[in-house]
């Protein structure tokens, strides 16, 4: 533990990719009394595409991270609720994440163990155990001990083309694509994933929050049936954004560049503000 190079090459490499360290450090500054209007969970389509600053004067924060499947989001929600509360839980349900094997992504679990600024809480250890991978369990044990002993090295890998803008948003300052070749895809949510999602919706409700499911914009929009677990919640399709099929808004078929994210965030913020206003009107 006295040598970062040993940790990097033999245990795991600390990285700024996905900005988990910075967004969790910001999370720790929040409080239950300073409730959010919107808490975002999901994968990289979320943290690269949604800038919560556009919600102003409403408050939003994103704990989206790389390869974060719905199973990962369930554990991360538990961590978030230790630090803050929210009126709405917005889950980015990028369909491609449904089709990958397993409900919990092991790389996402590793990311949260290695790069989170928060102490390694029980939900994060449970997420690692859910991967069933002995290596990731060993990594979790090492970083729990390092955290306990106060070993906190800076990130070994810096990402030069990404810029952390605060509130969990990462701006992708890269060259856009001009066109994309799409394959026909059909994605179906598994029963196990649907049950995890139902559990998240119930947990949010118990904590006084409504759930919004958000399908992010994609150039190659996957064809998928709307699962039964979508029936009792608010659903927003990001492909309704007018810029959703403009290639120059993206750097691949589903990740937005900075200009695309600005346009999408502006559109999405109006959709979310409308939902908030409608809810307040019905309560009155």
Which terms summarize this structure?
single chain, 284 residues, alpha/beta, five-stranded parallel sheet, two-stranded antiparallel sheet, 10 helices, 40% helix, globular
3D structure, described in words:
There is one protein chain. The chain is an alpha/beta fold and 284 residues long. Helices cover 40% and strands 12% of the residues. The protein contains 10 helices and 7 strands. The protein has a 5-stranded parallel beta sheet with strand order 2-1-3-6-7. The chain has a two-stranded antiparallel ribbon with strand order 4-5. A hairpin with a 2-residue loop joins β4 and β5 (169-172). α4 (70-83) runs parallel beside α9. The chain is globular, with a radius of gyration of 18 Å. It starts with a helix and ends with a helix. The mean pLDDT is 91.
Largest sheet: 5 strands, parallel
Helix content: 40-55%
Whole-number radius of gyration? 18 Å
Q: Ranges with pLDDT <50 over ≥5 residues?
A: none
Beta content? 5-15%
Distance between the termini: 58 Å
Choose one word for the global shape. globular
**H/E series, N to C?**
HHEHEHEHHHHEEHEEH
Number of strands: 7
Structural class of the secondary structure composition? alpha/beta
Task: Compose a concise summary of this entry.
The protein is an alpha/beta fold and 284 residues long. The protein is built from 10 helices and 7 strands. Helices cover 40% and strands 12% of the residues.
Q: How do the strands and helices of this protein lay out in sequence?
A:
Elements: H1 4-10, H2 20-27, E1 36-41, H3 44-47, E2 60-62, H4 70-83, E3 86-92, H5 96-99, H6 106-115, H7 122-131, H8 134-148, E4 162-166, E5 169-172, H9 191-206, E6 210-215, E7 234-237, H10 258-283
Parallel strand pairs: 1-2, 1-3, 3-6, 6-7
Antiparallel strand pairs: 4-5
Helix pairs in contact: 4-7, 4-9, 6-7, 6-8, 7-8
């Amino acid at each position: 533990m006295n040598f970062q190079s040993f940790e990097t090459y033999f245990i795991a490499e600390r990285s700024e990719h996905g900005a988990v360290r910075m967004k969790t450090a910001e999370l720790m500054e929040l409080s239950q009394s300073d409730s959010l209007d919107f808490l975002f969970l999901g994968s990289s389509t979320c943290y690269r595409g949604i800038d919560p600053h556009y919600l102003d004067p409403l408050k939003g924060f994103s704990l989206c991270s790389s390869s974060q499947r719905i199973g990962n989001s369930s554990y991360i929600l538990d961590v978030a609720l230790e630090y803050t509360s929210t009126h709405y839980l917005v889950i980015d349900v990028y369909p491609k994440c449904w089709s990958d094997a397993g409900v919990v992504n092991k790389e996402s679990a590793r990311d949260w163990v290695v790069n989170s600024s928060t102490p390694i809480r029980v939900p994060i250890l449970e997420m690692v155990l859910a991967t069933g991978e002995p290596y990731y369990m060993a990594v979790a044990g090492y970083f729990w001990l390092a955290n306990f002993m106060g070993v906190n090295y800076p990130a070994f890998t810096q990402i030069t083309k990404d810029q952390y803008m605060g509130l969990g948003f990462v701006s992708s300052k890269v060259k856009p694509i001009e066109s994309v070749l799409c394959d026909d895809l059909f994605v179906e949510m598994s029963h196990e994933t649907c049950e995890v999602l139902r559990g998240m919706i119930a947990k949010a409700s118990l904590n006084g929050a409504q759930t919004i499911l958000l399908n992010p914009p994609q150039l190659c929009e996957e064809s998928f049936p709307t699962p039964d677990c979508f029936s009792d919640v608010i659903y927003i399709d990001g492909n309704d954004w007018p810029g959703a099929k403009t290639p120059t808004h993206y750097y691949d078929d589903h990740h937005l560049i900075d200009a695309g994210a600005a346009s999408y965030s502006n559109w999405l913020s109006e959709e979310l503000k409308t939902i908030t206003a409608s809810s307040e009107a019905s309560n009155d």
